[in-house]
Write a structure and sequence with these properties.
transcription, 25% strand, 3 helices, transcription regulation, three-stranded antiparallel sheet, HU Protein, Chain A, IHF-like_DNA-bd_dom_sf, two-stranded antiparallel ribbon, translation regulation, alpha+beta, DNA-binding, 2 domains
């Protein structure tokens, strides 16, 4: 199993697009910064054929310490959610993606 890193992605941009290594790394950073800034504002990011990143608010709730069984409050927080498109799900499962277009990809 290989982990995809920023360096891997920047190198792939370099080899596929033809920008310099520096420009490729800068392009990648700009895209990632834009995605992060959009999510910070509470907006969703949809990458057609890949999936949708969104932020969901979780309310205050009561949890339990598994060791002691004592109830503890869990404060409200924001959580990040990724919902893969049908195209990505099919690719991951080795299925054919014929017949799926962008209008069907995230439903």
């Amino acid at each position: 199993m290989t982990t995809v890193t920023r360096a891997n992605l920047a190198e792939h941009i370099y080899t596929q697009v033809g920008l310099s290594r520096h420009e490729s790394a800068e392009l990648l950073e700009n895209v990632l910064e834009r995605i992060a800034a959009t999510l910070e504002k509470g907006e969703s990011v949809k990458l057609s054929g890949f999936g949708t990143f969104s932020v969901r608010q979780k309310g205050r709730r009561t949890g339990r310490n598994p060791k002691t069984g004592i109830e503890v409050p869990i404060l409200p927080r924001s959580v990040m959610i990724f919902r893969p498109s049908q195209i990505l799900k099919a690719q991951v499962n080795g299925e054919s993606v014929i017949g799926l277009d962008d209008s069907e990809s995230d439903h």
